[in-house]
Amino acid sequence: MPNNKIQGNRWKRFDDWDERPLSQDQFAIEDSQEGFIACRGIKDPKPELRISSGKVVALDGIPAEKFDIIDEFIANYHLDLKVAVKAMAMESSDIARMLVDINVPRSELVILARGLTPAKLAEVVASLSAMELSFAYSKMRAREVPGNQGHVTNAKDDPLQLAADSAIAVALGFDEIETTMRVSRNSWSNALACCVGSAVGRAGVLFQCSSEEAEELRIGMSGFTSYAETVSVYGSERAFIDGDDTPWSKAWLTSSYASRGIKMRCTSGAAAELLMGFHESKSLLYLEARCLCMQRGMGAQGTQNGGIDGAPLASSIPGGVRELLAENLLAVWLDLECASGNDARHSESEIRVGAKITPYLLAGSDFICSGFGTILKYDNSFNPSSFNGEEIEDFLTLQRDFEVDGGLKSLEDAKALELRKRALDAISAVLEELDLANPNDTMRSSIALSSGSRTTDTFPTRIVGEISWKIENGGITLLDVIRALNNRGFLPEAENLLFMIRTKMSGDYLQTSAVIRNEKVISAINYPNQYTGPGTGYQLSKERRDEIIKVRNELDKESVLKNEAIHGVKEKSRIIYRVKEEADFSGDGNEVVLAISPAFGIKFFQTLAGHPLSKVLDNIKRGIESKNKTMRIVRCLHTADTSFLGLSAARLSGSGIGIGLQAKGTAVIHQKDRLPHNNLELFSNAPITKLSHYFLLGSNAAEYANGNWPEPILVPNKGEALGARFHAKVALIFAIETGLTKVEQKPQVIEVEFL
Amino acid sequence: MRKKLGVEDYPLGEKHPDLIVSKNGIKPSELTLENISLGSVTIDDFQISKETLKYQAQISYSADRKPLGDNLERAAEMVKIPNEVIMAIYEKLRPGRSKNKEELLSYARLLRDKYEAKILSAFIIEAAEVYEKRGLYKSRY
After folding, report:
1. Domain match, A445 and A579 both
2. How far is CA A190 from CA A154, A165, A285, A471, in A?
3. Half-sphere exposure of residue A444, counting CA atoms within 13 Å on the CB side?
4. Domain boundaries B81-141, CATH class
5. What is the pTM of this model?
6. Which residue on chain B is closest to A477 by alpha carbon?
7. Is residue A662 among the annotated active site residues?
8. What is the pLDDT of residues A530-587, one digit of tens each?
9. Chain B contact for A216 (CB, 8 A cutoff)
């Protein structure tokens, strides 16, 4: 029989779920025909390679005469026929095992990858679990030490803010910073501003200005930028052509950047073809395998992949996030530097974002993010990233939690402001010296202090366009900027920029996975990842670990006691504690004994909720008296534990009812014949226990003494993570309490006087 | 002819600063605030040289990265080609920009004859053939 008495047709938990950020995310049903398939699509070819007279005659099911531009390029430039026959003859499952075997060195696998076709590469990595992918990634990535890349943009294309924010990105430890514009004609202004800001604090931070290909190259030639990553590659011919390029045009660009000493990497990633409508019913992973084989063939030193703009779409597909890991693994297996996505935010759910970054943090990556938003979300001209200015400290904490190197370090208040001021003065000097603009103190002040562009008082956007026009058309180059800095006394910044020109002349950072640390180029050549099991590969140095474990607002015993001492002074004007005789059983049936902890009113003066202990005692006393009982206070010295405080009090109490009260505010009502941890009522959530609750606690204790069974007091909570909020302090407090205990000592009667 | 460089010679800037000169023959050590404040030099004077790129290519080969080495060899040939020409050829390599195979082949000849860029020339010839096969000479707008 259906139950018709329930009014309503929906469990309200679904309403709760509808309110969660996750409910904003869209999810797509798996549909291989429509291209919504992470791995093993219905049209993914079987791995195949046929070679005749030293030429590829069939590749993954396609005979040479039917090769499209991508097949053709892969056959000509990726496949190493010397290893291909042997490599293709191996079982995919055997190769998969080699990827996660610490006894098979990276170098052996890298050679193997050159002989594998896209379908074979995809088949191998598709068979690994997310855990195995992540482990294999940590073994296969090219450079030993991990790094990170950050976006520096703002909604006004404000050059002053760009300079200040670049200096902050440098201080946070980013190896590369990347800008782009809201208005494309502002590119030169953005480039100059970030370039100046990137020279504040240290030399060697690589910088790029993402703009139209030809312009990006010209900006690079003017010296402002040092790398590029806009060379996009697609996994189906028609998507490639709609992208207005071919593998040959992109390879041409790849060489062009190198010819000007500019580091470059390609861009590809899951779901780009799906977004462009030319997926050929093939899986995300297979199409990306094609992209990566092309990139290796083009001679790009690296890639940014892992679903870049396509990450949100890839993540809407079952297994999509695992696929992103798989394609990153393909990149490093193919010996490419990998800026591993974690760029465009794939979800509104912070849980999904945190979960997605974790394998990368654990495994390490050349660039954990190919675009960490160093600025606030609304200032990110690329779109919000997985992590943004708002969430930098969350990321730093994850580094600390796992003791892993995500490439970043924390920033002190005072240092941050100092760097912003320096960058603002430097960019102002350059703008003035080169007759580009005249920023004033009001602007500098508002930008130095503002978290984002919404609260800045700066140039109108029109002026930014003029600045940009003057830089471009005046033929202003990095040398002019250096001269301007030099003229105005910004010598460290001028020297830092000269260092970049000198390094560019050496071509050293054109090699795989190159970054600059401490003014030295480090790459997969001089610092290769040589992981072969526990204790090998990248290890945190002591210095680096010290940086990683440093976050703001850390507590220690001294800071807790110092804070308490301030409250101690105030308490002195409210209460006097007088130590009397050793406490005994009084036989007074009218009393409730309250046992306080060893440090109560001596080292600690307020509860975790911030209530002065004098007020707490006063409320309990009035509560007890409201039910016609009296309060006798004793201090226990033999224990600081709430239960034992309570039971000791009950045993001393003529009524058999006692209260245990710790300095931090945790309290218990106890009865003399009960076991220690089997109390009458426990008030365990001190941080949310109000004074009114202490009154009721007193009143209930008195009721028990009167032989009644009152309604227990419930302290309502809102689901706060009280452990996270308070336990570090609780443990420090409790250590001090227990440090004061003397097991042999009897409780003392304490007389209090409220002032 | 000096022996080919290898991974042990990297980073060039640290191990062999003496080998590095810019496109216009300037040494890194000559790049000082004092020298640039004289104002006679331009950013172009400090561009990477063909020789340096070829050294880096040798290092890439020695690190067993042939495609990267080949790319640096192509880049070495591009050093003396002006930006405008590089970008013009890039444009012609985009789908539908060259009217026919001959148009691309004319650039291959230009690269070979004017810029002594044999590798780049062969690269364009290869592209011209693939583009013909895949019908990429059809204008798209």
Report:
1. no
2. 10, 12, 35, 10
3. 18
4. mainly alpha
5. 0.95
6. B43
7. no
8. 999 999 999 999 999 999 999 998 999 999 989 999 999 999 999 999 999 999 998 9
9. no
